[in-house]
Amino acid sequence: MNIFITGATGFLGGELLVALSKRKEIDKIYCLVRSISEAEANARIEHIFELHEDYLDKNKIIPVIGNLSDEQLTDSLMKNTVLNDVNIIIHSAANTSFSKIYDDLVERVNIDGLNQVLSWAKQLKNLETFLYIGTATICGKDIKNRIVYEDESPNLNANHLVKYTYTKMMGEINIHKQLPKEKILIARPSIIMGDSRPWLPRSTVILWALATVNMMRLVPVNPLSQLDIIPVDYASAAIIELLFTKRNHYIYHVSSGIESASNSSKITNVVHECYKDKPLFKFVDKSMISQMKNWARNRLKPYQELNYYSDYLDYWNKTFVDSGKLRMLFAGLEPYLDFTELGQVFDNSRLMSDIKIGAPQPVHEYIKNSIKYFGNIDVFEGAIDP
Ligand SMILES: NC(=O)c1ccc[n+]([C@@H]2O[C@H](COP(=O)([O-])OP(=O)(O)OC[C@H]3O[C@@H](n4cnc5c(N)ncnc54)[C@H](OP(=O)(O)O)[C@@H]3O)[C@@H](O)[C@H]2O)c1
Fold first, then answer.
1. What DSSP character marks residue 175?
2. Atom of ligand 1 minimally distant from the CA of 96
3. Burial label, 169 (beta-carbon count in 10 A; 0-12, 13-18, 19+)
4. What is the pLDDT of residue 331?
5. Phi and psi for 378 in degrees, rounded to 5?
6. What contacts 279, CB < 8 A, 6 or more positions away?
C-alpha cells in the first residue's frame, strides 16, 4: 500500500507522517514538500523525524517537490509515474492563516491547490481513499453555544469569521464534485493546540494565542464559553485509526466532544499555576477590545470603562513598553478571541463509536505539558503570522 501526503512538514501532518512511517502494511509514503532542491526537500523531511526523535527510513519516505500554488502541479504529479500506484492520499496541507492580508493566498492554496491535487487523484487507477483534513469550524460563526453535528456542514449559507474556514468548506464541496463518496474520508479536527505528551511543542500554532493571553492577563472573552480543543497527538492517532478501521460514516469530527470540552476559565487557572508572578487573569466583555486598542494608541477617553482596570493598565505599561507592539498583538489575537466566544462544541459520537482510543483528555488537563514552554514563544513574531 502506498500513501501520498501533503502538509507533512506541518504541525499535524508531521505527526501523521511519523506515525504512518511505523505501519508495516505501508510500502511507500510520498510527501509533497515545498522546496527548491531535492537536498532541501530531504532535509525538511529529516527535520520532522529529528523533531520527533524518530527513525527516518529513506527507502519508505520519499519527498516529492511541489507547491499547491503552482498551476502546473497536476501536470507534474501526472508525469511522476512512480505516483501511479498511490492507494491513499492524505491532504493535510493548507494555509491556516486567519489574517486578512493572506486571504488571496489562503484561497489559492486551500481551494485551487486542492483542486490541482483532485485533478490528479481522480485519474489514479488504484486510489482507495482520499483523506481530507478539514476543520470542524467550517460550520461558520452563526452557530453559538451549542453542540454542532457533522451533517450541518458544508453549508454554503454559513457565514465565516475568516477566509480560512470558508476555503476549507469549499474544499469539502469540491471533493464531493470530483470523487465518489466511497473514496472520500473527511476528518474535521476542532482546534488543535499543544501536545498531551511532555514534549517541547513542535509547533506553536494556536498555542501562540494562549501564550499571548498569558502575557495580557486582562482578557476580553467570556470565560465560560465552551471550547473544543484537542492535542496534536490525539488528533493524529484518531485520524490514523479512522483511516484503517471499518467506518460507518465518511465525515467525522475529531474533537473533544462535550465530555472533554473546556473553557477559558479552566485553562487560565492552570496557566496561572505556572506563572504566579503575573497578575490574576481577569475577564472582561469582548466589546472592551476597542477600548484596549484605543489605550494602545493613547486614545482612551477618561470616562471609558477600561480605566477601572488601572492595575492591569499599569502592568501593561511595564510589559509592553512600546504600545505599538500591543496593537500588533491585538491584530493577531482578535480572530482567536472571536472563535473563543462562539461556544461551539463538536459532537464526537461518530468518532467514539468507530474508533477505540476514546476521547482526549480535556485541554485544561493536558496543556500543563506545553505551558512551561511559553518562554520559547516570541508572541510578537507570532502576531505577524500566528
Ligand atoms: N491546527 C489546527 O488547530 C487545525 C484545526 C483543524 C483543522 N486543521 C487542519 O489540519 C491541517 C494541518 O494544519 P496544521 O495545523 O498542521 O498547519 P501547519 O502547521 O500550518 O501546516 C501546514 C502544512 O501545509 C503546507 N503548505 C502550506 N502552503 C503550501 C503550499 N502552497 N504548497 C504545499 N504545501 C503547503 C505547509 O508546508 P510548509 O512547511 O512548506 O509551510 C505545512 O506542511 C490543515 O488542513 C488544517 O486546515 C488544523
1. H
2. 20
3. buried
4. 87
5. -85, 100
6. 217, 218, 311, 312, 315
Q: How far apart are CA 256 and CA 16, in angstroms?
A: 19
> How remote is the CA of residue 171 from the centroid of ligand 1, in Å?
14
Q: How far apart are CA 262 and CA 203, in angstroms?
A: 21
Q: What is the CATH number of the domain that holds 232?
A: 3.40.50.720
145 sits in the region (left: phi over 0; alpha: psi -120 to 50; else beta) called: left
Number of domains composing the chain: 1
Q: List, for the chain, all residue ranges whose pLDDT scores fall below the cut of 70.
A: 385-386
Q: Is 139 part of a structural domain of the chain?
A: yes
382 CB contacts (<8 Å, ≥6 apart)? 204, 208, 211, 212, 332
Residues 141, 143, 145, 149, Cα dihedral to 10°: -120
Residue range of the domain that includes 255: 2-200+227-261+343-361
- Percentages of the chain per state (helix, strand, coil), in multiples of 5: 50, 15, 35
Q: Taking the model in full, what pTM does it have?
A: 0.97
Q: Is 103 exposed, middle or buried (0-12, 13-18, 19+ CB in 10 A)?
A: middle
Measured between alpha carbons, how far is 326 from 167 in angstroms, rounded to an integer?
Answer: 29
DSSP alpha helices (H): ranges in 22-79?
38-51, 73-79
For residue 164, tell me if it sits in a domain: yes
Residues with CB under 6 A from ligand 1: 6-7, 9-13, 32, 34, 67-69, 92-96, 109, 113, 133, 135, 168, 189, 191-192, 203, 205-206
Distance 95 CA to ligand 1 centre (A): 6
Q: Cis bond leading into 154, ω under 30°?
A: yes
The C-alpha cell of 21 is what? 512511517
Name the amino acid, one letter, at 47: H
